[in-house]
Every structure is written in C-alpha cells, then in structure tokens.
Amino acid sequence: MRLLHRKNDEEFSIAEFSGKNIPPYAILSHTWGADNEEVTFRDVVEGSGSSKAGYQKIRFCGEQAARDDLRYFWVDTCCIDKSSSAELAEAINSMFRWYKDSDKCYAYLSDVSVSDGEPSRLAWESAFQKSRWFTRAWTLQELIAPKSIEFFSAEGRRLGDKKSLQQKIGDITGVSLQALQGTPLFHFSIDERMSWAAKREAKREEDEAYSLLGVFDVQMPLLYGEKKAKAFIRLQEEIDKSLKSKLFSSISISPLVA
Prior knowledge:
This protein has eleven helices and seven strands. The chain has one domain. A hairpin with a 5-residue loop joins strand 6 and strand 7. It is α/β, with parallel strands linked by helices and 258 residues long. The longest helix is centred in the C-terminal third of the chain and has 23 residues. The radius of gyration is 19 Å and the shape is globular. The relative contact order is 0.11. Helix content is 40%, strand content 12%.
C-alpha cells in the first residue's frame, strides 16, 4: 500500500508499506474531475501536479491529517499507478479494506461551499443534499466501510460526521441507518445492498459493478471493456459462490456414536 506524506508545504512524497507494517493513516473520499485535472502517481514521483485543480484536495487531506496527528494519508488519484492493470486490480479488490482500516476518513465535497465564519447548517444543507458525492458508485463503499467519516466543504470547513448527519445521509442515500452505524453488512440482504447502489453512476460503466466488491465481500478480476451487464453477471456469480461457501462452512457434522 502506498501512502503520501508531506515533504514541505508544497510537496508530497510516496512511501510503500505492506502487511503489518502499515502505519496509521487518513484516507480521502472525493469525486473525480476531468482526468487531466487530477494529480497522478507520476505527478507525485516527478514532483509536479501542483498546478492541477485536483491538487487542492490532496493538500487539504495532508493538512487535515496533520491536524489529526497522522503523518500518512491515502488519495486514490495518485497512490495507485493506474498504468499497471495488475496494480489497479489489486487496489480495487483491496479498497474496501483500506477505507475500513483507516484511522480517519475525510469526505471532501467540492460542490458544497460555506461562507466565512462558523458554517451554518441552513447555509449548506441544501447543497449537501444535492452533492455529486452521493451519486457516485465508488463513494458508497467509502461511506459504509470506515468506522467514521467526516464531511468537509470545498473550503475545508468541517460540516459534521457520519454519526451527526446519519439521518440526513440515510434519507439521501437510502442506506440503512444500521449500516451507517457499523452493523456488519452480512446482516443486510443482497437485494437491499444492491438497492443502495441502484442510482449511482461511474465514469466507466464496469465500475458500477467493480465498486461493489467490498460491499459483498467478494473478489474478481477486472475486465474493462466487458460492459456493465457482463460485469454484473460476474459479480452475481461471485456473490453466489461466496454464499454457498459460507453456507457449507457453517454446517457442522456430528460424529457418529457407536
């Protein structure tokens, strides 16, 4: 797992960790802009990218992590080398766990703005409800997986967290309040979990299925170009295999008594 840390006020560098050696870290949840606006893995390696629009949210995440006494943080745009299909597949199959294991998760809502001074809930709640963050495929797992998630405006002002905003989040997303409170996902039916994702979209249509791997606790190879329908067929097959495996493992056979 690659993590970012600040070299100075304007630069970040990447460190690699594995296994039990992964340090405490913060993680960013956000919506992507145009690809050429996002800071990439190559940008960070080359020390460039600060002029891109997406640099602002990376800087925000680093500064907020520092305020929370966390040296390291993770941002998907630049911590994954997407030129490697193998690395991308591994990351997507691991991402739910990475969000779940984070010490802090920050949802950066670039389309929610607040004026100077303390944020008034009345001033931003309409924009919050309409935020693009609630319509994207990947942010479903990013909402559910972390122990807690804190929401911030485009200016970096804290709006609340998953607990304080849970009723509003439940109304917006249709996600069960019990799921938002951390009830394990196996307590919710396949159909209910699918319903949470029904109105969400992704830039690449196959990602509407791939983004649900962690929600259903399954893994599968990524085949970009297979189209959405085939991706969901394969997802359903993996879910069925997982259910059968768990059913068989729960069956205990008593020893015969002579």
